[in-house]
């Protein structure tokens, strides 16, 4: 303010905010310093002088946003489950530690030999996932980020519900979703069991058949059976690679999941 004041015909104002602990001597010293610098218009506001302070609300909001999230540690003695998997011929184990209510709270991996690069990376992933779960990150969000990651090792698995995995994190995310998420949560992120994907979980036991008589120009035609719309994929085979339903492509079948064909290109 003192730097620009000599170039102004009038005056520029400045409000100086002081803490609630400011004294009369502090106010006197501020006004004397402003006079020495040539400032013509200076005002002072001391914190707590008014009943309402708009800037205080924003200050409280910032404090609320930066409040640390408490870590929910697992008890010293906890239940856990270990799952063996095989992805593209690479065997591994995933161990999930559980809270007393059954929620996953920690994840450990053991892949290939101790000290290998893949095993070290999976250890780092397990630590990251464990810290995220213990700090309140929903498992569904972790699964959404890890599923469909594509890198080696990848390939067929020994799990009938996850026939093909694009990577080890992809397999682990799908297995966690099938083991701990509800069907609605799995549908929201596009991960379902084989029965859910094929629509056999809640399929009717038998189709409803209705006989309808049709006439044309006064001449009755033969009755026909209406069983609803024709499903062109009802006779489609399962993909030998990922287990998904293949669709007809000309005289052959192609898989929309992994791109495999039934012998045609």
Describe the structure.
It is an enzyme of class 1 (oxidoreductase). This is Vitamin B12-dependent ribonucleotide reductase. It catalyses: a 2'-deoxyribonucleoside 5'-diphosphate + [thioredoxin]-disulfide + H2O = a ribonucleoside 5'-diphosphate + [thioredoxin]-dithiol. It is built from seven helices and 13 strands. A three-stranded antiparallel beta sheet has the order 3-4-5. Strand 3 and strand 4 form a beta hairpin. It has three domains: 61 residues, no CATH class; 114 residues, no CATH class; 29 residues, no CATH class. About 5% of the residues have low confidence. It is of the alpha+beta class and 265 residues long.
What is the strand and helix layout of this fold?
Blueprint: E1 13-18, H1 24-37, E2 41-46, H2 54-65, E3 80-87, E4 90-98, E5 104-111, H3 117-134, H4 139-146, E6 155-159, E7 162-165, H5 168-180, H6 183-188, H7 194-198, E8 210-212, E9 215-216, E10 219-220, E11 224-226, E12 246-249, E13 252-255
Parallel strand pairs: 1-2
Antiparallel strand pairs: 3-4, 4-5, 6-7, 8-11, 9-10, 12-13
Helix pairs in contact: 4-5
GO molecular function: cobalamin binding; nucleotide binding; ribonucleoside-diphosphate reductase activity, thioredoxin disulfide as acceptor
Family: Belongs to the ribonucleoside diphosphate reductase class-2 family.
Catalytic activity: a 2'-deoxyribonucleoside 5'-diphosphate + [thioredoxin]-disulfide + H2O = a ribonucleoside 5'-diphosphate + [thioredoxin]-dithiol
């Amino acid at each position: 303010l003192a730097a620009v004041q000599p170039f102004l015909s009038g005056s520029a104002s400045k409000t100086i905010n002081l803490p609630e602990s400011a004294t009369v001597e502090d106010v006197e010293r501020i006004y004397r310093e402003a006079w020495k610098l040539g400032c013509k218009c200076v005002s002072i506001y001391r914190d707590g002088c008014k009943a309402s302070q708009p800037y205080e609300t924003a200050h409280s909001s910032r404090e609320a946003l930066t409040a640390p999230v408490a870590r929910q540690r697992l008890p010293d003695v906890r239940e856990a489950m270990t799952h063996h998997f095989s992805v593209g011929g690479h065997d591994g184990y995933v161990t999930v530690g559980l809270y007393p209510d059954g929620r996953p709270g920690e994840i450990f991996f053991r892949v290939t030999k101790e000290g290998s690069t893949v095993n070290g990376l999976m250890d780092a992933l397990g630590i990251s996932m464990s810290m995220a779960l213990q700090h309140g990150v929903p498992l569904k969000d972790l699964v959404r980020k890890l599923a469909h990651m594509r890198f080696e090792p990848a390939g067929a698995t020994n799990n009938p519900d996850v026939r093909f995995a694009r990577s080890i994190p992809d397999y682990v995310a799908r297995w966690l979703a099938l083991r701990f998420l509800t069907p609605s949560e799995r549908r929201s992120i596009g991960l379902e069991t084989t029965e859910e994907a094929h629509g056999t979980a809640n399929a009717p036991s038998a189709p409803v058949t209705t006989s309808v008589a049709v006439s044309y120009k006064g001449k009755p035609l033969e009755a026909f059976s209406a069983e609803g719309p024709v499903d062109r994929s009802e006779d489609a085979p399962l993909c030998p690679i990922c287990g998904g339903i293949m669709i007809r492509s000309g005289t052959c079948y192609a898989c929309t999941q992994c791109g495999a064909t039934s012998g045609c290109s």
